[in-house]
Write a structure and sequence with these properties.
By secondary structure, this protein is an alpha/beta fold. It starts with 13 loop residues before the first helix and ends with a helix.
Length: 585
């Protein structure tokens, strides 16, 4: 391989990296790839776009360049160069060859460009903030419902559209016309205008990932009729931003604002969601446009819509858009929670309700540790309003299922209802079935598994399974996404006539512990959103729930590529000494 002489006396700091523009080239005799490679303070790479170079982090004096999976494609070190300037170099690690080091050297050489110092501009609505209701017309419908003024939403929208594109207007102008045409009285106009602003405020929330791109000197450009004081409050209180605001009706739409902006600022890029106003417009003035689509429905959210769970799709979207983490391994785990794990538990909760009704169960036992999150959902006030039986989290393991123990039998039966479900996240169900059979509880206790192995389930009529997926392919990721900081149960004992379940110490490293902690906080954010609305009057049919779950779990292979930390840590749990027991689980 080529040598890459290292200059050890130089300390790379975030301040040094983010205050320069680099030329990105390849050795030996490779092309110059970019003249505007810039490190953003929040871990992004800007001025250059490729899947192999998505973000960066500092580690032990090196600069790690990370791809979309959060894995290093190059580990850069400082080396000396001509003119006294430092440059960074390192061997390229090929993602298509399991990230093996190659003979290709990537070089970042500081150049004289001011690209790093140029500012960015941002649209506001559906770029930095989103509406909980998704459809902006829903704001008017909510005002109509609360004010009890019939046809307000339709008339309010019609009046605005009559002005749009024809004149400059603000919110007060809309309401003055509603008074002038006799639809509202002057007093009603004043009250409803304040109600609209309150409704707008209540429905807005920040889009954290896009906000993370904003630097202190950047500017906000919005085509909006709402009052400036209201928009400034949105920026400050919803987004935590004090950036300069440019507000007009049609500044972007009619391309009127860009000449003045480019004369005053050296602008490198503009972020926005509207193709006409935010992409075509700035590009005509030499500004790099960046289309923001994050506020649109995700695939999972569309699936929830399709099965009739619209309010849950809104809740999931709101939590997703308010979630951002700079560390790729954690960000990828959170994305997998939102795309697969949380919605799978949600659909499974409705299924469990059907199972409980079918078995006439008055108690649900959720198995530690895989159900540590799902238990909280099943036991939540929201699902209590759905008619869910009482849920109890029980300590259980393969050892305890097969071990003859008076203490554990007493523990288990003390937690049973008249008839109970024994619920687990993923598995073959063999251990649960063995426990039920050994204790003679078939009439009182029925195992239910969210994701069960199809081969094992085919030979287990006493087992209820939500969806069937290959055990060995799904297990490591589903268990990893539901990992707990609790230790696993190993035995039961009687201590001074009280039952104790003994556990072994938790086995995870620091990185996995942080993923577990942050994932639990995200999950609880979603549970909090469930308290903002009532359950549906009718629940989706089990067949519809299964079809939706199948569509969601199809995303697991794509997500799994980005879960290296989770794969490594959970794989270590399944040590060779334990693998023999998996087949009999």
């Amino acid at each position: 391989m080529l040598s890459t002489p290292v200059l050890h006396a130089f300390d790379v700091t975030p301040e040094w990296l983010t205050s320069r523009t680099f030329t990105f080239r390849v050795e030996p005799a490779g092309p110059t790839i970019s003249e505007s490679f810039v490190f953003h303070r929040n871990g992004f790479i800007v001025g250059y776009s490729h899947g192999n170079e998505k973000s960066w982090e500092l580690e032990a004096g090196t600069v790690r360049i990370l791809d979309g999976n959060g894995k290093a494609t190059c580990i850069l070190k400082v080396r000396s160069c001509e003119d006294g300037k430092a440059e960074l170099s390192g061997f390229f690690h090929n993602p298509t060859a399991d990230y093996a080091a190659t003979d290709v050297v990537h070089v970042l050489e500081e150049n004289g460009s001011d690209y790093h110092a140029r500012i960015q501009s941002f649209d506001l609505f559906d770029t930095l903030v989103a509406r909980r209701c998704y459809d902006p017309l829903a704001v008017f419908r909510n005002v109509e419902a609360k004010s009890n003024i019939a046809n307000f939403a339709a008339r309010r929208h019609t009046v605005e559209m009559a002005m749009f594109g024809r004149r400059t207007y603000g919110l007060e102008d809309i309401y003055e016309l509603l008074v002038a045409e006799g639809f509202l009285t002057a007093k009603q106009s004043r009250v409803l205008m304040l109600m609209e602003l309150e409704e707008e405020w209540d429905t807005l929330f920040p889009i954290r990932e896009v906000i993370a791109h904003v630097n202190p000197g950047d500017i906000i450009i919005s085509d909006m009729y709402l009052p400036r004081s209201f928009i400034q409050r949105v920026l400050k209180e919803k987004c935590g931003l004090d950036n300069e605001l440019y507000l007009s009706n049609y500044g972007k739409h009619h391309r009127q604002i860009w000449p003045a902006i480019t004369e005053r600022y050296a602008l490198r890029s503009h972020f926005g969601d509207n193709v006409h106003a935010d992409i075509v417009g700035p590009s005509e003035f030499g500004i790099q446009p960046i289309l923001v689509t994050i506020s649109k429905w995700s695939k999972t959210e569309e699936i929830l819509h399709g099965v009739g769970l619209q309010k849950y799709a809104h809740a999931l979207r709101q939590v997703r858009l308010q979630t951002f983490h700079r560390t790729p391994a954690i960000a990828n785990a959170l994305n997998a929670q939102l795309a697969v794990n949380i919605p799978l538990m949600l659909l499974g909760s409705f299924w469990i309700r059907y199972c409980a009704a079918s078995f006439r169960a008055d108690r649900i036992l959720t198995a530690a540790r895989d159900c540590n999150l799902w238990h909280e959902m099943l036991a939540s006030a929201h699902f209590a309003r759905c008619g869910m039986p009482l849920s109890t989290y029980i300590k259980i393991s393969r050892t305890l299922c097969h071990e003859s123990s008076d203490a554990y039998e007493a523990y288990l039966q003390s937690n049973l209802g008249t008839r109970s479900l024994l619920v687990d996240m993923v598995g073959t169900g063999k251990s649960l079935l063995a426990l039920v059979e050994r204790l003679g509880l078939a009439e009182r206790l029925r195992p239910c598994i969210l994701v069960a192995d199809p081969v094992a389930a085919a030979h287990a009529p006493a087992l209820d399974a939500f969806i069937l997926k290959d055990f060995f392919q799904c297990r490591i990721f589903i268990e990893g996404l539901n990992a707990s900081l609790d230790g696993s149960a190993v035995t039961a004992a009687s201590d001074q006539h009280m039952i104790r379940i003994l556990t072994q110490p938790n086995e995870f490293g620091d990185a996995m512990r942080e993923i577990i902690t942050v994932s639990r906080a995200l999950f609880r954010d979603f549970l909090g959103e469930l308290n903002t609305f009532q359950p549906p009057g009718e629940f989706p049919h089990p067949a519809a729930l299964r079809a939706a779950a199948e569509g969601i779990v199809e995303q697991l292979p794509e997500q799994a590529l980005k879960l290296e930390t989770l794969l490594f840590e959970q794989g270590a749990n399944l040590a060779p000494a334990n693998m023999a027991r998996i087949a009999n689980a």
